[in-house]
């Protein structure tokens, strides 16, 4: 039995139309389903949690953006429920990761029913007040500020809104002192941003950590050292291709467990997490996800 989670606001109504197409395919293939179409994230989360606890569902499909993906993985991490996405959001970064971005509902459906789900890693964040999961990228510093501002934009959508937010934040941003620990090795670095990547992309396809894989059992850290505003503007366009990684002011690290302290906050999968300090660890095989790659 399939559980369909819908964010009715996603894509300015596009998600609702996509859900109707999926339901038609489920009906024609005699696959039983239940639709979760609630008016708020809290109600959606509670309904998914209650339904998943019944043991009646082997599949959860999110129809929306990365925010809905983030919400869903909180309820199914370390569970046997298979997870899939029909992208209808702004960034759709997880959909890009699993190869369904740009595909029709029919193509995605056929792919899901004809292949076996893969085990993907998740990042587990421990902050003073909660534990939370993420699947793509956790950001702190400059890019977290950009994320926070971009989330307030109702228009434009996609990459453009992150570019505009970057330009607006750039004029007043100062570097931050980061204290971080990777598998017991401590660092103290001044930087513009520090990201912890489980997957390669965020912000609508920006390849912040181009070599990261959701199934390698590692977290990859990207630190951008203090640079001038002009240099940051020069580096920024390279993020869409991943070429920024070769810049001398960009440092890369890898590990399984990370602790970060700084006077800033963290976002993950585009969602606010908490002020720092936080601890992140990779949990291998924590998500059963379809992938059409």
Describe the fold and architecture.
The chain is α+β, with helices and mostly antiparallel strands and 293 residues long. The protein folds into two domains: 114 residues, 3-Layer(aba) Sandwich (Rossmann fold); 156 residues, Tumour Suppressor Smad4 (Sandwich). 28% of the residues lie in helices and 33% in strands. It is built from eight helices and 16 strands. The strands form two sheets. Strands 1, 2, 3, 4, 5, 6, 8, 9, 13 and 16 form a ten-stranded mixed sheet that branches. A six-stranded antiparallel sheet has the order 12-11-10-7-14-15. Strand 8 and strand 9 form a beta hairpin. It is globular, with a radius of gyration of 19 Å. The two termini are 24 Å apart. The mean pLDDT is 92.
| Strand coverage percent | 25-35%
How would you sum up the global shape? globular
* CATH topology label of the largest domain: Tumour Suppressor Smad4
Structural class: alpha+beta
Low-confidence stretches: none
Output the CATH class name of the largest domain: Mainly Beta
User: Number of helical segments?
Assistant: 8
- Number of beta-strand segments: 16
Q: How many angstroms separate the termini?
A: 24 Å
Q: In sequence order, what are the helices and strands, one letter per element?
A: EHEHEHEHHEEEHHEEEEHEEEEE
Please give the radius of gyration in angstroms: 19 Å
Number of domains: 2
Sheet having the most strands: 10 strands, mixed
CATH architecture designation of the largest domain? Sandwich
Could you outline the blueprint of secondary structure elements for this entry?
Blueprint: E1 2-6, H1 14-28, E2 33-36, H2 41-52, E3 59-64, H3 66-76, E4 82-87, H4 93-97, H5 105-114, E5 118-126, E6 131-134, E7 137-141, H6 142-150, H7 159-170, E8 176-182, E9 185-191, E10 193-197, E11 219-224, H8 229-235, E12 250-255, E13 257-261, E14 265-268, E15 271-275, E16 278-289
Parallel strand pairs: 1-2, 1-3, 3-4, 4-16
Antiparallel strand pairs: 5-6, 5-16, 7-10, 7-14, 8-9, 8-13, 10-11, 11-12, 13-16, 14-15
Helix pairs in contact: 2-3, 6-7
């Amino acid at each position: 039995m399939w559980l369909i989670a819908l964010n009715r606001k996603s894509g300015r109504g596009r998600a609702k139309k996509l859900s109707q197409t999926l339901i038609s395919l489920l009906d024609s293939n005699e696959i039983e389903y239940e639709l979760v179409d609630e008016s708020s994230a809290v109600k959606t989360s509670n309904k998914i949690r209650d339904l998943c606890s019944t043991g009646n569902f082997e599949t959860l499909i999110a129809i929306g953006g990365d925010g809905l993906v983030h919400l869903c993985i909180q309820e199914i991490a370390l569970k046997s429920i298979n997870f899939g996405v029909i992208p209808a959001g702004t960034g759709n970064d997880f959909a890009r990761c699993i190869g369904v971005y740009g595909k029709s509902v029919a193509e995605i459906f056929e792919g899901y029913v004809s292949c076996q789900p893969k085990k993907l890693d998740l990042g587990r964040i421990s902050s003073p007040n909660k534990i939370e999961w993420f699947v793509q990228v956790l950001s702190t510093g400059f890019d977290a500020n950009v994320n926070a501002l971009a989330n307030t934009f109702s228009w434009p959508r996609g990459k453009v809104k992150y570019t505009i937010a970057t330009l607006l934040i750039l004029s007043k941003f100062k570097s931050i002192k980061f204290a971080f620990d990777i598998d017991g090795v401590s660092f103290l670095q001044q930087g513009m941003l520090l990201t912890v990547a489980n997957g390669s992309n965020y912000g609508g396809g920006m390849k912040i950590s181009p070599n990261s894989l959701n199934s390698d059992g590692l977290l990859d850290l990207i630190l951008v050292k203090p640079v001038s505003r002009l240099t940051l503007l020069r580096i920024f366009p390279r993020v869409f291709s991943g070429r920024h990684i070769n810049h001398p002011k960009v440092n890369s690290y890898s590990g399984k467990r990370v602790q970060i302290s700084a006077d800033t906050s963290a976002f993950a999968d585009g969602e606010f997490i908490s002020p720092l300090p936080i601890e992140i660890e990779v949990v291998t095989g924590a998500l059963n996800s379809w992938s059409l790659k």
